[in-house]
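Journal club prep — side note

Before the paper discussion, L.F. wants everyone to see what a predicted structure for a comparable chain looks like in token form. Sequence:
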Amino acid sequence: MNEQATNSELASQCDEVLTTNYERPTPNGNREAGALPQLSQIVEALLFASQKAVTTKELLSYFKAAAVAAPESEASAFASLKETDLAGALHALQQELGMSERAYELRETASGWQLVTASKFAPWLRQLFPEARPTRLSAPALETLAIIAYRQPIIRADIEAVRGVAVDGVMQTLLDRGLIRIAGRSEVPGRPLLYTTTQAFLDHFGLRALDELPNAAELRYVPLPQVASTVTEPAVLSPSDAEGEQEPVEVAVQEQLEEKNEN
């Protein structure tokens, strides 16, 4: 009931934002009611023209700048627009596009809001841009990335303790692709480097925050294998041995990201 009430309240707020009676400026400085574009239409136009994700604050700045640049135009009617009104328009547009079953949808990621094509049209879109075929992550890279995502900040030795193999090459690949970064040094002896995921990681998997990772709360507290203090470098296992030595946490996090990587 609470969830239904919340959705009903959100829909009511969105309708109120979209039906706000903005006034058209006149040459003598007065305002008269007019058929201005709907707020959601302007937002859709901005997002359609943008080549990158746009935050709510950036959208609001565009409205303010347009009102200042053209004070006698329709843009000045939105000079007093608030961020809450804009957020309501974004959610209303998102709902409208979802219900209309259009070929594109409005998605919010860590970088902001963006119009994207629906994933079910991927087979045809790949033919439109054959040279821009994305390079998918390998299974070892996905395993390593999943461990970092759920247990960050984490040192390389802990990653290798879970995987059972050296991860130098895989880590370099993830660094080169901008999916992970060096976040500092650990306080343990030797002060090894700490690794975390980046905003590019969130964008790649369509996440707004790390809390949206599947089963995030549970998997972050799964105990990691202990690194033997007498071993300076982890033993490198053969691929067959490594497959047989997978830890439960590795299997779990790998499965969660593989589906995202396929889309």
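L.F.'s comment for the group: DSSP finds twelve helices and seven strands in the chain. Keep this in mind when we get to the figures.
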